Amino acid sequence: MAHHPHEPRDDRHTPDQGHAPGPAHGHGPSHSQSQSRSQSRSHSHGDGHSHDTDIDWAEMAPHLEAQAELFTPLYERALSWLGREVTEPGLIVDVGSGPGVVSCLFAETFSGARVTAVDGSAPLLERARQRADRLGYGDRFGTLAGELPDALAELDYPADLLWAGRSLHHLGDQRAALAAFAERLAPGGTLAIMEGGLPTRFLPRDLGFGRPGLEARLDALQEEWFARMRADLPGCVEEAEDWAALLGAAGLKHARTRSFLLDLPAPASDRARAYAAASLSRLRDVFGDTLGSDDRAVLDRLLDPQDEAGVHRRADVFVLAAHTVHTAVKPVQ
After folding, report:
1. Which of 46, 48, 293, 307 has the maximum number of C-beta atoms within 10 A of its C-beta?
2. What does the pLDDT read at residue 63?
3. What is the DSSP string of 129-194?
4. The model's pTM
């Protein structure tokens, strides 16, 4: 059985600011290791533009993998922190696992645990299985396909640790989902959700051309996109994002919160630079019609591989992000 020291709650809660459709932000579909759901809706907000909130998770698999691999130092620190609260778990369940990068990090960190990756996308779970086999974890790695949270009813055993990394916000009724997650915990088991944090940054505020503050303006567009995405979800319920209170409402105790930093300073590695370029490219694709012509021109220049001021060449590109983890424990009856 996992051991859970009941430590005082850490109140360093970071406001939920990163809900982007593009990879530059903390809560966007490109960051989520979420379930797949076919959403053919788009949202028009009266400005003549219709912004599709559909997410094709299978198509995004390579980017999901690249992002999670780049963010591995952050995840490793988060899992190390969890490991001080949850010792020797028998079963770890990764809810909304996507292609399984983080699932496999759980298998590496908790060498005695069985890990089950749960997702609505069979292609993503196949990638997760292949990764686990390739890394030598296949004998204690399983997958479960189905819509969340209902798919969790098919688990053979309650979980000692249930992790939902940026997947909860893709479920319409987050309060009900947390209650369903808590129900699948063993007594003394821990629920850990990664929600909130800060927007990822790649560039200085003043690029030396164009209007300063481009990424802040992109943040505002992504916040609007996230609100539309949430509103389009089946059974969407508006909820104040007080995660400690929501975990308590699910019957869990000893809520804790901690944020983890990814700091890849300039000059960026080729992998970090490629991630920055892919992120900005997706934002250009999603918001190109909404951005002012000046910001579109700046993005086009940033994405030009031949431009010395673009992200492929400039010396001041970096990756800086913060993700927040919230945990709570199921009381022992």
Report:
1. 307
2. 82
3. HHHHHHHT-GGGEEEEESSTTGGGGG-SS-EEEEEEES-GGGSS-HHHHHHHHHHTEEEEEEEEEE
4. 0.84
